[in-house]
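Narrative progress, year one. The postdoctoral researcher (J.K.) led the effort to move from monomer predictions toward full complexes, under supervision of the PI. The following entry was the first complex the group processed end to end, covering 233 residues in total.
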Amino acid sequence: AQSVTQLGSHVSVSEGALVLLRCNYSSSVPPYLFWYVQYPNQGLQLLLKYTTGATLVKGINGFEAEFKKSETSFHLTKPSAHMSDAAEYFCAVSDPNSGGSNYKLTFGKGTLLTVNP
Amino acid sequence: KAGVTQTPRYLIKTRGQQVTLSCSPISGHRSVSWYQQTPGQGLQFLFEYFSETQRNKGNFPGRFSGRQFSNSRSEMNVSTLELGDSALYLCASSLEASRTIWSPLHFGNGTRLTVT
């Protein structure tokens, strides 16, 4: 069974500071990994994904994440936080061999990012 | 291009009743997935449909069911509602042009169900 752990349910940063949201996963097979963002009263929006290939992936809004197999991690970073980044962020994993479908995602509990002026 | 549309946005039901939620995927998308989001359990996978067939199912009781129509629109039904079913129900669709290439999931804004 897969699982995702997001360290820190709430992270607070100052505008312009580095954003680091941590995600560790457990999977018996090489997984697909994702970060999603959720703004209040909205659905989830895909920030970035890792399926195969380059382990450093760049996403929208200046975010990037690095897949580190040895550490089973997929931490999300952004060099400089903007007020508009305040939202809840979810890390997710998918087993590409799961029932022939790539769409059964296991999500972490989420990290609420607050950006202070 | 219109996004994933979920109706209704808000719903209030009483324990014991049943409810049907609707999801219209992005035009051309054939895969529709459903997720339940609660403060305690977070986001949990309910089921996924592809070409009118349930392809994958999460660990939810049989009170939770779904279906997909030939136009890819999907409905989920919850019978005999319990207080714990109060949640945001999210639908997501995907193109899946190829089984070997992952296509992004596009989420709707959800239906917030409150059971009293």
